[in-house]
DNA sequence: AATGAATGAGTATTCATTCAT
DNA sequence: TATGAATGAATACTCATTCAT
């Protein structure tokens, strides 16, 4: 008996992300994904029981990825200002380096049925644990988690997503946003 | 000659918003919209030449609506702090009062093909003109427009969208966000 | 009370022919015909009770036209050879001069439901009466009408229809066909 | 893996011919063809990538068939008169024996978009090669190919197609036509 | 495990025709 | 007479999923 071909499963996962990037979540049919993965449509149903579950599973996996990426860039000896800068720039460079995955996750998180399957707050727990430590040390202001999330994460994602159509220099914007966040959050 | 039934046109527009809210932009087929409007699918093609254009047109119309709503709540004699509070609370109460329309616009603006048809910056021109006046008077800090948009609009929209699944009291969150924005933006 | 607008009816008739030429009999919808005639679809149903009847009526009318055209080119004092030449060249030049109408008639006559509505033999009665006279005078061979029709009319129509895609010089072909017909039919 | 059901493919092909015969090329919808073949409409798209290609492929296949039929009835030792008789009677009996296919091919060849996909001259190459040999032997007159095609093939097809509505005895007609062709083409 | 074939239900859109003015 | 609005039924085609090998 052959074992599940992990290589094949990986190819399917990448195909999902790729097809959604190029065709949008609407145009991402099982047939297209199968073709992009050089696999039969029926094969996909060996790994996932239906399309919904397939997207949910891959969405869930990739949702965590950006926060792992972020955590790898954190160092314990960072100052408050450095922490904030690392978070903002980290999110931004993640979107640049993993454009396909980022776009995939964004699209999924706007899709009502899918976004319910992933608790965003679970994904970024580690990052918030870190922030809480800085708050307890009196370095960061003690704003609540949702407010913090809203202010620290959504604006930079917005800039990242619109960086192509903006007439301003994105690096200048990013510098400005870092300064704003430091002004806002440092004690 | 039979005249266009304006009531019918309005019903179609509401059906579009409603179906997209309940089924997501994926599941919003012309047939479902027609049924929700108690109209034949063919009738929809009297008012719009195809589905893409239909969504684009309704999306464009409703995109402006929230900013008109916002402008109606502004008064010339407001202080800087009042202005910021009015904007943040205005966006929030718009989302509550026009929940379906807000959700519809959010979904459309995440859909690549649709978001290109509406220039967000056109819609909020009036609001930004007002902000610019306060900047020139030295009341608000002179941050660039995209940064301002990112920080002033996206976080409150995020809170509004997630207000149901949050375990915190949304009103407390909102108070906090207003304070944050005032700290950040007032000179 | 207004009378039926003959001008309008004529415009409809021309639109039918034109649309069928450009779109084929498949693509010729009532809506397109109405638009080409600058008329409402509903107006067409004032003049014809349905699409089938509309096509049948116009088809019938134009079916006769080519034989009237032919008869106008006949002169009583023509020799047998001249008669044959006049018929062959007459059919050909009709297809060139009335390309739209010819193509319309050809398309309709291949459509089973339509071709039953017009008796070809009725249309060309005059031409055959003429031929019969020449037969009685011992100038033309006494072949039967269907054979004559088959041999005298279908080959030249075939050449006319394919004159664009043929690599031969159509005028040479036509000369040849005239000679063939004269050899074949003259006593 | 399920293998392609050749029987199914054949059924589809026959259904195409049959539906076009009964409903005309206008009325031959994919749904009707699928139903006639006792197959889902989707199945048809496994075998053909779209309707246009489906018709073109089947049309092309059957276009050749009548000339193969014709060639099988030719013998090398035939006299010129026998050759002409064999061609005329061969075409006729093909239309009788394969009435549906003949009618299908005729309808397709009148449809502008389809007729462009098949070069008639390719299909009857073998027959013309044979004719050319008789021409070189001085047995048949040296008329050009298009004239020959027009005179030898179109009249008999016309008679075949109208044999039901004619008030004359078709066999007498056919005898007459054979004689005409022999008079015309033999040296 | 893997697959191409097969399909019922669905997709956006157009059709010939009728309605209400 | 004339019309644009309205529509049920049809159009070609695609979908997620299952079947048979």
List descriptors.
homotetramer; 187 residues; mainly alpha; Arc Repressor Mutant, subunit A; Tetracycline Repressor, domain 2; 12 helices; 75% helix; DNA-binding
Strand and helix map with partners:
The structure is a homotetramer of 187-residue chains.
Chain A: H1 6-27, H2 30-36, H3 41-47, H4 51-72, H5 80-97, H6 99-110, H7 112-115, H8 120-123, H9 125-136, H10 145-152, H11 154-161, H12 170-185
Helix pairs in contact in A: 1-2, 1-6, 4-5, 4-6, 5-6, 5-11, 5-12, 11-12
The structure holds a DNA duplex (21 and 21 nucleotides).
Write a short abstract of this structure.
The structure is a homotetramer of 187-residue chains. With 187 residues, chain A is mainly α.
Written overview of the protein:
Four copies of one chain form a homotetramer. The first copy, chain A, has 187 residues and is mainly alpha-helical. Chain A folds into two domains: 1-47, Arc Repressor Mutant, subunit A; 52-185, Tetracycline Repressor, domain 2. Chain A is built from twelve helices and no strands. In chain A, helix 1 (6-27) crosses helix 6 and helix 5 (80-97) runs antiparallel to helix 12 (170-185). Chains in contact: A-B, C-D. The interface between C and D is medium-sized, with 32 and 33 residues.
Count of β-strands of chain A = 0
- What is the count of DSSP helices of chain A, taking H or I runs of 4+ residues? 12
* Average of per-residue pLDDT values of chain A: 92
Q: What is the succession of H and E elements of chain A? A: HHHHHHHHHHHH
Alpha carbon gap, first and last residue of chain A: 62 Å
- Estimate nothing, just give the exact number of structural domains of chain A: 2
Question: Major β-sheet of chain A, in short?
Answer: none
Main structural class of chain A: mainly alpha
Regions of chain A with pLDDT < 50 over 5+ consecutive residues?
none
CATH uppermost class of the largest domain in chain A? Mainly Alpha
Of all chain pairs, the largest interface belongs to:
A-B, 33 and 33 residues
> What fold name goes in the CATH topology slot of the largest domain in chain A?
Tetracycline Repressor, domain 2
Assign the CATH architecture of the largest domain in chain A: Orthogonal Bundle
Strand content of chain A: under 5%
Q: Give me the oligomer status.
A: homotetramer
Helix content of chain A: over 70%
